[in-house]
Amino acid sequence: MGWYKARFFLARGFSLDAPEALEAALLAHAQVAQEVQRRPGLYGEREILVLRGPLSCPAGSVLLQSIWYRGEGEETFRLVTAYPWRQR
Q1: Rg of the chain's alpha carbons, rounded to an integer?
Q2: Which residues does residue 61 pair with via DSSP β-bridges, in sequence order?
Q3: How many Cβ atoms are within 10 Å of 32's Cβ, its own excluded?
Q4: CA–CA separation, 13 vs 30, rounded Å?
């Protein structure tokens, strides 16, 4: 699964030599994306956030869904995974 995601991001103009560009794009995505779901984590104290929205890429924009996690006592969410989203 990891190689599929790597190919996806590489095909959209991101580079292995500049991971900070993808990091910045994912953080920008989190600012503009729509919150699809927010729920407690497995043991209740943690929180999971599902976002869906555009990701600005060097080769154009794509619709992305991302999953973020905030642990107990943490102030900020951390990215768990991100993948292309297709309207169903």
Answers
A1: 14
A2: 56
A3: 11
A4: 19
H or E segment at 64?
strand 60-70
| Other CB atoms within 10 Å distance of the CB of residue 81 | 12
Contacts of 24 (CB under 8 A, 6+ apart): none
pLDDT (tens digit per residue) in 25-73: 999 999 999 999 999 877 767 899 999 999 999 999 999 999 999 988 8
Does residue 86 contact residue 64 with C-beta atoms inside 8 Å? no
Nearest residue to 67 via CA among 46, 45, 52, 87: 52
The amino acid occupying position 46 is R
